Amino acid sequence: MKSITIKGSQRESVGKASTKALRNAGKVPCVLYGGDKPLHFSADEIAFKDLVYTPNAHTVVISLEKGGKHNAILQDIQFHPVSDQILHIDFYQLFDDKEVTMEIPVRKKGNSPGVIAGGVLRINQRKLKVKALPANLPDYIDADVSGLEIGNKLYVTSLVSEDYKIMHPDNTVVCQVRVSRAAMKAAQDAAKEEKAATKAAAPAAAAPKAE
């Protein structure tokens, strides 16, 4: 999996006043969990641009001025409800021999015969939660739709891998091919016309023959 480096400074004070001062200076207060004790640090808000505002998944190298380097993943993020400013980020430290759970984006692969025939592909799960050793975390999970006809569904059981475990129930639908609204409306209109024609023909068929 691709990695992004975040350069920051370890925080000596973690009170409300110092946290407010950091935000006013364009920095984000952060905490790294998973080690012997939580590690508090801060970094420029712009440093998180490629980590937060992207559909892709990344691991993170947290590089601190006096605290060395730490491999981690983003665990939780808080935004201001009005301005969308990043208020706080939690990270979880990675260890080579310890499995971690992370959300991985789903990537469509192949062409669906059902879509070619006029159906519509619906993506139900754009990300899947997986558990794996850090070295086995994928950049994305391929969802092969080349066998999906209209009405077919692709379940997570079709995406199993020896490298990671998908943390969703077996009946979770990743994507499916549905009849398009245009095709459905055309079928409904055709059914109404057929019904109307049958109804109009019925009296004529029942009328007595003139002598």
TrEMBL record:
Domain Large ribosomal subunit protein bL25 beta intervals: 99-179
UniProt key word Ribosomal protein: yes
CDD domains reported in the protein's UniProt record: Ribosomal_L25_TL5_CTC (cd00495)
Gene Ontology CC entries for this record: ribosome
Gene3D superfamilies: Ribosomal protein L25, beta domain (2.170.120.20), Ribosomal Protein L25, Chain P (2.40.240.10)
Low complexity bias spans: 198-211
Function, in words: This is one of the proteins that binds to the 5S RNA in the ribosome where it forms part of the central protuberance.
Family: Belongs to the bacterial ribosomal protein bL25 family. CTC subfamily.
Record protein name field: Large ribosomal subunit protein bL25
Organism expressing this protein natively: Galbibacter pacificus
Lineage start: Bacteria, Pseudomonadati, Bacteroidota, Flavobacteriia, Flavobacteriales
Gene name of the encoded protein: rplY
